[in-house]
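Our consortium's second objective concerns turning raw sequence data into structural hypotheses that experimental partners can test. To show how far this objective has progressed, the report includes one record in full. It was chosen at random from the queue rather than selected for favorable results. The single chain below, 160 residues long, was entered without modification.
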Amino acid sequence: MLRIAHIIGSRLEPAFSEKLQLLAQRNAVDEIELAPNDLDRQEVSATTRGGQALAISLPRHQRLFDGAVLMLDDNSAIVARAGGRRWLRLEPRSIGDAIELGYHIGNLGWRVRFEGEVLLVAIEGRAENYMVRLGELFWSRRVGMSVLDETDDQRRASLK
């Protein structure tokens, strides 16, 4: 079992992309497929597509991400690939609704990111469960809601 103790960098960084491209031409780049929930974990056990068992144990300041270079030498590389994360897009109708929404979500401890006046909540499970938890904010239409599937292009743009 190969033990990974830190992330070397991103496959998009010029320092790594050229070397990875050369290794890929020789079929020497192996990948692990990560579920969206694995991205927030410090310790992950996984098997690469090539069958190599990995034990990943990262320091607190590092997080797994799509394109994380986990191992790189002159003969081979291992890169993390992540499936698309789903986001609940929440758009409050007024400032008062935004304050109440932020307070409610803060109490629930949901993982969020901001895009202007829109709040995005990382979905783990069914989107309907989140709608039920927001209750009156959702049912009274004080908060607009939709589900977004993050594509590889969106992840790549967010890394720049």
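The partners drew two points from this record. The chain is about 30% helix and 35% strand. The radius of gyration is 19 Å. Both points have been shared with the crystallography group to help prioritize constructs.
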